[in-house]
User: Fold these one by one.
Assistant:
Number 1:
Amino acid sequence: MTPASKIQLVALLEMLEENLSMRIRINSHKNSNYRGKIIYIGASKNFFELSLDRVEKNGASKELSTAQAQIDKVGLFAQGIAENRIEAIGWDENKPLYG
């Protein structure tokens, strides 16, 4: 995630903390069937920097969008939001955000 993402994640975290029965779905979209590098956070769980323990793999757009949605879910879970309140879904070119 980028540093700007931190502001959005904090706002979402505050909303979930204020509304304890709220459940959310995080959707991540990729508009192509692109293959490329996917960066996963390592054990340090440093969400806003590329730490030395990161894991890099190559994958398809579906894998990338799923990884992006999952990192948001993991970030909220790490801040104390129950995992069952967050659904994370990645989409590829079969369900573009815009056409």
Number 2:
Amino acid sequence: MVSTLLTDLRRRHAALPPPLIVFNKSHSGSRLLARALAGQGIFMGAAVNESLDALPLVGLVEHLVERHYPDFAGLWSAADAATADLARLVDASLAAHLATYDRVAAGPWGWKLCEAGYILPFLDFLFPDARFIHLVRDGRDVVFCDHVAPHKPFWRKIYFNTDRIECWRGRPLDNRAYDRRRHVYNALHWRNSVEVGRAYGAMLRQHCREVRYEALCTDFPGTMTELLAFAGVAANPAAIAAAAATVHRRSIGKHRDQSWLRRRQVQALIALTLASFGYVQNFSAILALYREILAARRCASAVPRLAAGGH
């Protein structure tokens, strides 16, 4: 049985139109998408940063990830006293996010926040008719953009689905280790983000749409028209055309500018996920990635033996 406070919370916000929620791994091009949605008249928040992330909702995501993710079962059956803080946080977060929203006109609204994908079960409960867009970008391009080390419990869950981890393959999870091999840690982050997003998104059935950043760049008008139809928002062709004029493809495939070694280190970690998302589409390429994985594992297993020999 769901907590009475949670049921009341959902009822309290039922008068709002269903939101459109964008989630993704950071540096996947969501700023482009959020700006385009705002250009279509969708209210994306009263307080956003330069990447158009909804700042008032950050604390809510952190609260739910730290206390409940990845197993939300306890949340639904929690005593009212245990959910009181969450209910107050939701009310305050939405009030701040919607501070300048015209509730009388009740136009389309939503938000973009990368890590919102980790709390989809709760958002689906709170807004049963919400629409979700999972923006995915080739992980080989994403990993060479700097982000955040898994140095805090919140980020460890984002990377590894648990905060009960102190190292990965003998490497610490602090800022110094991250600075040495950012692309390796970012590869772990990308892999978990897109896999969690797809798994949760599949549970939402027709309410979630997965879209590629590459599709936005190569066919912006067509992709935006499809997404707006999915969201139930009438498209503004003039605004789409104006936004399309600012879109470029230069960032697609930028990983090819990196060294062979760095690319190999990344592909050894995310090969299977790249294939499952269609970024590797022929058997010979997939086989080559498998070979890289095996080679990397052999190199890793050889290190202890060399150390044991005293050389």
Number 3:
Amino acid sequence: MKVSESIKVSDKMTRDLVTVDPMATARDAASKMRSENVGTVLVVDRGMLKGLVTDRQIAMKVVAEGENPAALNVGEFMTKNPLTSSPDMGICEAARMMGEHGYNRMPVVEGNKLVGIISVEDIAEHAKGCNLCTEGVLKAVSKAER
């Protein structure tokens, strides 16, 4: 087994999560993104992941569509049931999945509990020495919605 194959998502994921309730407004989510300096918030109800919202979704699905950010709940436009990883998944497999789907971030779930989030940035340092991860990261970046 190669060293890179033994690195798990749990070794690189972010555990300090930024979350909102499904009834939070787009404005609430945007304010939280600004205060926490993140581009994604996880939508959680009673500890269970329901979806995620990105800054791009707020710009494109709320602001550009003329919706009122203070009146539209994130549950109405979030990505529902997002692709997830387990903490035990190999980092290269996570990079491959993210690249295949064009995602820059992927929530990490253990059982039914949200435990982290893994991003292209989290994988990037490791990817320098791992061709499989580099390929996944580059695919994710090239496929990501602009």
Number 4:
Amino acid sequence: MSDKKGIDVLLSKVPDLKKPARVFLTVLYVLCLGALCGVFFFYADRLVWDAPMLSQLAMALVVTGISYLHFRVVEGYREKHGPLAYRYCFYHLMVPYLVTWYACFFHPGIGLPSPI
């Protein structure tokens, strides 16, 4: 089952997602952010024996920072961008938040080999 009403609200707030070229660029943006998270985990997890916990902590702090920033600047986005505030907030804060959150969520399940 899909939530048609929720998708309609998202499309009304972020009209770029109605255009196939913009959807492609959005997916490319998500994949690039995900690749950056993967590269970070790949190299950071091999530094020392407890590096996976430290890299997880670092990513969790990034997620928390993005979430905190979102609540701090949302009014400024509304004042500065008017009706396009949701679009800018979606691309500047929500997409990076979701990508880093999912990277933080799936990181423990990857099970990279120990550097030792």
